[in-house]
Structures are given as C-alpha cells and as structure tokens.
Request: fold
Amino acid sequence: MKLTKLTALAATTALCAPMAFAEDMANEMTIVSWGGAYSKSQLKAYHEPYSEKTGVTILNDDSSAEAVAKLRAMNEAGNVTWDVVDVVAADAMRLCDEGLAMEIDADNQLAAAPDGTPASEDFGDLLVSECFIPQIVYSTTFGYRTDLVGDNAPTSVCAIFDTEAYPGKRSLEKRPINNMEWALICDGVAKDEVYEVLETSEGQDRALAKLNTIKDNVIWWSAGADTPQLLADGEVVMGSTYNGRLFSVIEEQKQPVAMLWDAQVFDLDGWIIPAGLSPERQARALDYIMFATDTQRLADQAKYISYGPARASSAPLVGQHAELGIDMAPHMPTDPENAKNTFLYNYEFWADYRDDIDAKFQAWLAK
Amino acid sequence: MTDTTASGGPVLAADGTPLKKSLARALRLQKIRALGLIAPLLIFVLVSFIIPIGSMLTRSVNNDIVADTLPLTVEALQTWDADSGELPDEAVYAAFVSDMVTAIEAKQHTRLGTRLNYEQTGMSSLFRKSGRKIKKLDPTTDGPFKETLIGINKSWGDVETWRVLKTHSVRVTNGYFLNAIDMQRTPEGAQAQPEDKQILITLFQRTLVMSMVITVSCIILGYPVAWILANLPARTANMLMILVLLPFWTSLLVRTSAWKVMLQQQGVINEVLVWIGLVADDARLVMINNQFGTIVAMTHILLPFMILPMYSVMQTIQPTYLRAAKSMGATNWTAFWRVYFPLSVPGIGAGSILVFILAIGYYITPEIVGGTKGVFISNRIAYHISSSLNWGLAAALGTILLAVVLILYWAYDKIVGIDNVKLG
Reply:
C-alpha cells in the first residue's frame, strides 16, 4: 500500500514537469463568490476540474457582497483567510486602491490564448485595474412582463419613464449607479456626454428630476433576486436586474417575461487575490487563477449561466446550456443582436462621485 | 491596628495568625475563586463587547491617516494660510512629492485618496492618477515641483484641494460626527451640508419615532395575549406559549419575506380584499415598501420580546386581588385599571425596553420591506460599513445611536424608575 502510494507520487511528480513546485503550494484554498446559480456555475466549470487535476480541497464562502468590508477587516486583524475572491470590477478597483489586493501581471501570471495571443490582449480593455482578473461580462438590463404590456412591447429603455404607455410599477436598484445614467439618456442627453453632465450639480439634479417623474411608481430593490421575484409575482410591469437572473426567470422558470436589452449597462466580474498571503497560499491562488481563467474554462462557465466570457478568444467556444440544451450565445449580453445599444459603465467616474451622488440620491429617496 | 494594640494585642486565630489577617486571606481566596468562576464570561464580555465598542468610539474621531501618510506636507502646511486664496509655496509641493513617493512605495496613497474623497469628490482619482506619475519623480533632484504637479493634474493648482488637505490633517477630528448630523468640517468651522445631501438627522428622527410606534403596537397586541396566557390553566398556557415562541424558531429572513407575500399588491391580503369586493382591482392597497410595511413586519418579529416579560410578571399577580376589588364594589374595568394594570406595569416596562432597543438597531427587516420611507439609520450604518467603507462615519453614527439609547434609558429611569422593571 505504502509502496504503491510512493510510486504513484513519484510518477505524478515526474509526469507533471510544469507542476514541479506543487509541494510548495497550499493544498487547501478558500474561494469566495456570490452563491446561488453563479457559484454553481463556477463549481462546475472551474472548481471541480481544478480539484480533479491537482487534488486541492476547495472551500466555498458566499461572501462576495461584503467582500471589500470583510477583506479590510481581515487585513486590519492581520489574518486573511481567503485565497481567491470574486468581486465586481468597481470593488476590485477599491481593493486595489486600499492595498488589499495583489497586483497581477497579466502576461506572466495568466494563460495566453490557444493561438498564443498574450492575456493582456485577449482581455483587452476589460483589465480595468492592476489587481483585477476579469471573468465574465454581465449586464444590468430590463425585463418586462409580456402579458402586461399587450401588443406594445417596449423596445427602448425610456419605456421605464413612460407611465402612460406602460402603467404599473417598475423596479429599480436602490442606488444611483445606472439609474442616473438611464434618466439622463431618456432626458435627451447623448450617450457619450452622460458622464460629463453627471459631473455637474445641475446634471445630477436633472437626473433626479427625471427619476422624480416616476418616483411613486418605483419599487426599489437591493438584492439581485428581487426583480425576478417581483416580475414573477406580477408586482411590477418591468424592472432592472442582472441579465443572468432574467435568463433564469425566462428560460428555466418559463415565466411570461422578456428581455429589454436596450441601453444595457455592461459591467465586469472577476477575481482578485488578497494581498499579504503566505507564499504557499499565494502560489496556490495564482495557479488556480492561471487555470480558471484560461480560454476554455471561461467558455465552459457559459454552459451554466448566461454571462459572457471576458476573453475574446472564449466567445467562439460558447456552446449550449448544460441542462436545457439551448444555445447560449443568443442569451449573452455581448451577442451582437442584444448589444445593439449598450452603455459603458464608467468606473473612474463612480469611484470619485459615488459618495457624493449617493448622499444626494438617498436624500432624494427619503424625501 | 492601633485600636487592637491598645486593647492588649491582636486577637489570634487557632493557628496563631492574627484573626484579622486570617479572615482577610479567607475572603481573598473566596473572591479569587468567584472571579475564577466568572472569568470566562468576563473575558468574553471584554473581548466581544467592551473592546469593539471602545474601538468604535475611537474610530469615530481617529484621523491618523492624513498625518501618517503625508507627515512632511502636513507640517509644511502649518504655515500656509488657508484663507489667503493663494496656493501654498514650493516647500509644500516639495514636501508633498517626497511624502507621496514614500506613500506610493507602501501603496498608501490611494487609501488616502479614498479617505479624502468622502470630503471632496474627485480626490480618489486625483491620488490614483497622480500617483502613477509622481512615482517617476525623484524628490531630491527633480524640483521645483509646483509647476510639475500642476502639470500632472490641474487640481494641484486649485486652492480648494489644499484647503481640504489642511482641514482634514488633524489626528483627532470632529469631521465624522459633523457628517453624522448633516454638517461638515470646513476651514471656517462647522457648516451645514448642502440641503440636497441632508438625510441622517431625518433618519435618526424616523428611527426613534417608528421604534416607538412599534413598541406601542407591541404593547397593544401583546398585552391581551399575555393576560390570556397568564390566566389559563398551565397545560393550555404552555401549548399556547409554543405559538408565541414559534416565530423564534423561524429564520428572520423567512418571516420578513412572508410579510412580503402577504402585503404586496398581488399578495394574499389584497387578493382576498379584491375577491370579496372591498377593494377595486385597480386600487389595490399599498401596504409594503413603506413605513406601514416596516411597522407590521417588525411588530410581528419583536412581539415575543414583549409578551414574555409581560406574561411572567402577570403570572405573579394574585387573582385574589381582583376578586377582593370586585367584592368591594369595583366594576370589572375599575378592578382591572386600578388594581391589575398597575401591578403589570413592570412587565410592560421590561418588554418596552427590550423591544425599543432591539427596534432601534434593526436593519434587515427595514431594508427588505421598508422601501424608501421605512428605512432606519441602521441601514445607513450598514451601507457605510459594507459599501462606502466610510467606517469613521459609520462609527460616529453608531456612537450617536448608543448615546441616544443611553439618554432614553436614563430618562426612563427618571420617569418610571428602573427598579420598576421586572422580567418575572
């Protein structure tokens, strides 16, 4: 028994030349993510293959929603217990700013595309922060009840402000981000001037004034699951949420809901590695990241959830849903048919204006 | 000592030591043993309660980050007159570059940017972007820096940037407390926030008023239940008690979400009302995502905390008192109001304190069913802890909330008397 184990070990070491340093890596790691269907897609596409390949035990923690605050607290306490953390790009930027996430050298620490394109080019503009390894492109967009809008299916995002044509409640997120932009677009501001207008106090008032026209008709959500539930219950006629949530309402639960992709706001979600890990744990985290963000793995995730892979080279590999067997490409926010009119979320702007505009927004809400 | 010697030598114990000494030793041993017994709890309370509260209190005034990150700049700014309307001189800029180079090395400059962004919008990206360029400068050879810095970002040529830096360079600041009451720290002293950003005072008031409403509804709903429980035979009372305790065994989120299903416009109550024709289909009642929803859901969740102390106090009230009152000619109402009710007041007091203090710090339920008008100050605290990361402000808000509770407790003690509170 002992002998077989030893031989097996020797054989593995000999066979896996690139993994020559495997003994210097931790053999247990904690990965933090959002929970629910999203974590499940990561489990299937990344964790299970990685554990199988390396024998590492992966512990899951569904704390991404409070990741920034918790990492800061861990850092202050001097005991970081997480190895890889899934966060949205804006949070990754803040973690980087706070010195809580380690910087990644994309070309050396991430896998190149199968055709040899370096990672920095394959991810391109999506590498929005030095610490951030993009994983998916998701969008915040609208879904509407097909049975409540009659023959007059909305085609423009401004339908949310049109209470004449679409009476009933709508659900919007209880924070200024995205809502202020949509309000300005529907108030006649050109898409590429939105942030210039929003920088000024008058522009912010203008956006709030536009939102004020529908204030009594809005249910404000704070959890991504709220809008799907409100749509399913018929509480709202339309509402904003993450596109993957709407996919599950439409295709998995077969509710009378359809997508309104107009002016969808693209955002990114991806990994960061906390700063200050011990060398073994850091090596393990980097090894995991190298594996989990390669071209094939990112494409695999799209089998389980309708978020677009962040690598250009992954897009052609997106196949069918693992259980429903439908083509996933038409459900991706990045699909050309869906992405006819998209809006790019400005990270820098919100990093600066978040505190200021949020105070105004909350004061306006409480009025 | 002098007394004992005066009366002819100390009294000795059996083993020959002075009795006083021997007694003191025995008492000390007893005390140590008692202390040993409560030590686990004491340490637990100290670690999990006193230290966090202390840390919160210090955080609300601590502002070391500016002076720690930019020590030379802060010193150089001492001589600069913030009201002069003129930019600081080259010495400040040179000190700033020197500080920044060190800070960038330690990756502290963006953290400082985040801190200052709470006070002045744009600081976050100013520090991040400028950092990339300042990194390449050499503080000893590349001067003069005034022009260079203004070339890197024109905000360094804006007096306001330096005024903010100077205003917030103190190590102990009242800035967070001022922010917590809708004011701000400026070079000219404390000033009110612009009106369109004032929200926190409103939320404090709303939290207090709604918590009182919730407490009163708990009293009104809980009193009859406690009375029935206290007056039923023990077997039946125990059965019914399970119903009171049942909510405790259900997750808070489940209970709150259940209210959503009940109260929403397509929910159970509205459906029934529409079905029996009391409410028109297009005029369904709005009962959730507002103050009403918060009050209903929180009253339900906190009701057991009211019923239990009331019940245990009412159990101790002798039914013979009521009979005696009636036998002397009191009506049912007089007997209740003059005899029974005053005896049950300690239970109401205990329940009210529990419910009110729990209500004032609640945030999950208001977040889910409160909409915009039914959220509490704790929702803002949660936001500043987990989203904006403005922990100083969150700590200041928490400290104020703690102070308000202590003041109310003190007032309660003065008016009702804390001895007049019984848990059974």
Notes: The first strand of chain A starts at residue 28 and ends at 32. Residues 177 and 189 of chain A are 16 Å apart (CA to CA). Residues 12-131+273-317 of chain A form a domain with the D-Maltodextrin-Binding Protein; domain 2 fold (CATH 3.40.190.10). Chain A touches chain B through 34 residues (CB under 8 Å).
